[in-house]
Design a protein that fits this description.
The chain is of the alpha/beta class. It has a single domain, classed as Rossmann fold (3-Layer(aba) Sandwich), CATH 3.40.50.300. 44% of the residues lie in helices and 14% in strands. The chain is built from 9 helices and 5 strands; from the N terminus they run ααβαβααβαβααβα. Strands 2-3-1-4-5 form a 5-stranded parallel sheet, with helices on both faces. The termini are far apart.
């Protein structure tokens, strides 16, 4: 640790996370949606966000594309940069949890090591992994942006599922199979899972 960092101390204000959770009438936590592009992560996360928001909960979606336009705009898609992307999101999510916000993080996050890092940063008791699974062929059919086609043609390098690996979660807290249920069914299951975990 550098001399400068040794002089940095964490400051705790007079309003605690517990104070905020009591006022909001729910716990805060991070629900990490992982899966292939096109599996339904963002669609489900945003639909769940709307339902929780409508029920007066403090909730926010961290979406992969949106984060790349601001917080992580300086990062490439190299393995090292992807890891840094996940680290930054984990750190910001941790701050949101301290503010008593339910965080829905929708990121491919293909590597087990990166997802474990996010869990370590956020904390075991505040991190829940939701595996959104769908066969690659169906994900490709859903691909309105055409990224899979470009990856197949070699025009996009290191594309997860095509030219870069996706490591399936070993022990996810919830599995959602979007090829076997409707969006409404997936949203209902995820919402029920979240509500159970954030009860005071």
């Amino acid at each position: 640790m550098s001399k400068e960092k040794k002089n940095i101390k964490k400051f705790r204000g007079e309003v605690s996370r517990q104070n905020r959770e009591y006022r909001n009438k729910h716990r805060a936590a991070v629900f990490w949606f992982t899966g292939l592009s096109g599996s339904g992560k963002s669609t489900i996360a945003h639909a769940v966000e709307k339902e929780l928001f409508d029920s007066m909960m403090r909730v926010y979606v961290f979406d992969g594309d949106n984060v790349r336009h601001g917080l992580c705009a300086d990062l490439s898609f190299s393995p090292t940069a992807r890891t840094e992307n996940i680290r930054r999101i984990a750190e910001v999510s941790k701050l949101f949890v301290e503010n008593s916000t339910v965080c829905l993080c929708a990121f491919i996050s293909p590597l087990l090591s990166d997802r474990q890092m996010a869990r370590d940063v956020i904390g075991e008791n505040d991190f829940y992994e939701i595996f959104i699974t769908c066969p690659l062929a169906i994900c490709e059919d859903r691909d309105v942006k055409g990224y899979y086609k470009l990856a197949r043609e070699g025009k996009i390098k290191n594309y997860t599922g095509i030219s870069a690996p996706y490591e399936v979660p070993e022990h996810p807290d919830l599995i959602v199979e979007t090829d076997k249920e409707t969006l409404e069914e997936s949203v209902a299951r995820v919402k029920e899972f979240i509500l159970e975990k954030v009860k005071l």
